[in-house]
Design brief:
By secondary structure, the protein is α/β, with parallel strands linked by helices. Helices cover 16% and strands 49% of the residues. The strands form three sheets. An eight-stranded parallel sheet has the order 3-5-7-9-11-13-15-17, with helices on one face. The protein has an eight-stranded parallel sheet with strand order 4-6-8-10-12-14-16-18, with helices on one face. Strands 1-2 form a two-stranded antiparallel sheet.
Length: 327
């Protein structure tokens, strides 16, 4: 089945082939889970049609009531999961979702988070494993007054990686921060969309994405920072930095800034390039091989995200996977 996903609100040049994407999904039987309505007054996900498809085929549902929760999946069969995270007023919560990609299967996740007034929540989303199969991730966060949401995303598994993350800063002084990393190798296809909406006054957001591409990997990045009317004195930033480890990799980036309010501060940036020859010469003059020099530079960019994950065994597994991709 083919579905159109990750469509830009405002179109750019067609020849860039970034206004939208098409995802091909394998045949999957409908599930038999009754999933409750949740945040249904908001638009989220890579497309309305895809969310309907996901809900009809969901074979795993979980709602997080515990203060802290770690959920780990070994994906030996296709997984269509829905995760609902509700953080009550004044509550602090830590959630870690780990997906081990295996056996050329599909992982398709819908993660919905509601942070109520003065709540604080930390979410780690880690997908890791074989470079085969579909790795699909939809994430939506609704952030109320004085609430804070922090997200760390690691994308290191799957041949076709498709992501749609959205945060809606509804309340005054609400905050959202996301740090994400990815590494594309061989002929992997990576399609990323990040959408941050400022509604509440004095809201604040920060999106930082670091990636590396080598071989014939192909990646599209879209991000939207949208200041709605009424979001005065808000601040937001979105950045993506890509390290190219080969001349055959393809990188396309479109950061978008939308504004319907005067008194706001927004900035966006996207850059890509090969490793600085002077930096490479310096490292090799100190006895490092080209492979080890590349490894050191890529790890330095990824470290701020990875080292904040509070699980040493998982961190070591992430670093091992990165080492294997650089070889």
């Amino acid at each position: 089945m083919e579905l159109k996903v990750n469509e830009l609100k405002y179109k750019t040049y067609e020849h860039l082939k970034i206004n939208d994407s098409t995802i091909v999904l394998p045949k999957q039987e409908k599930g038999h889970l009754e999933i409750p309505e949740f945040l249904s007054n908001y638009n989220y996900g890579m497309s309305e049609e895809f969310i309907k498809y996901q809900m009809e085929r969901a074979n795993e549902y979980h709602q997080y009531d515990e203060e802290n929760m770690v959920k780990e999946y070994k994906i030996s069969e296709s997984l269509y999961d829905v995760q609902d995270i509700i953080v009550e007023e004044g509550q602090k919560k830590k959630i870690r979702l780990i997906y081990h990609m295996e056996d050329n299967k599909t992982r398709s996740s819908l993660i919905r988070l509601y942070a109520k007034k003065n709540a604080e929540v930390y979410v780690d989303l880690v997908s890791i494993g074989e470079d085969q199969g579909n790795n699909i991730e939809n994430f939506f966060a609704l952030v109320e007054e004085d609430a804070k949401v922090y997200v760390r995303q690691v994308l290191l598994g799957g041949h076709q990686i498709t992501v749609h993350h959205k945060a809606h800063l509804k309340g005054e002084r609400s905050k959202f921060k996301e740090n994400s990393i990815y590494f594309g190798v061989e002929d992997e296809q990576i399609d990323l969309f990040y959408d941050i909406v400022h509604e509440g006054a004095k809201s604040w957001s920060s999106l930082h994405v670091h990636g590396a591409l080598k071989d014939y990997a192909y990646k599209k990045f879209r991000s939207t920072l949208d200041f709605l009317q009424g979001s005065s004195q808000s601040e937001g930033s979105e950045t993506e930095y890509v390290t190219l480890l080969s001349d055959t990799a393809t990188n396309i980036q479109v950061p978008v800034l939308l504004c319907n309010e005067d008194d706001v501060l927004g900035d966006h940036a996207a850059s890509c390039g090969n490793i600085d020859p002077d930096k490479m010469f310096y490292l090799q003059s100190r006895g490092l091989s080209q492979e080890n020099a590349e490894r050191l530079i890529v790890k330095a960019k990824f470290a701020p995200t990875i080292e904040r994950i509070e699980d040493e065994q998982l961190r070591n597994e992430i670093w091992k996977t990165i080492d294997e991709k650089i070889r």
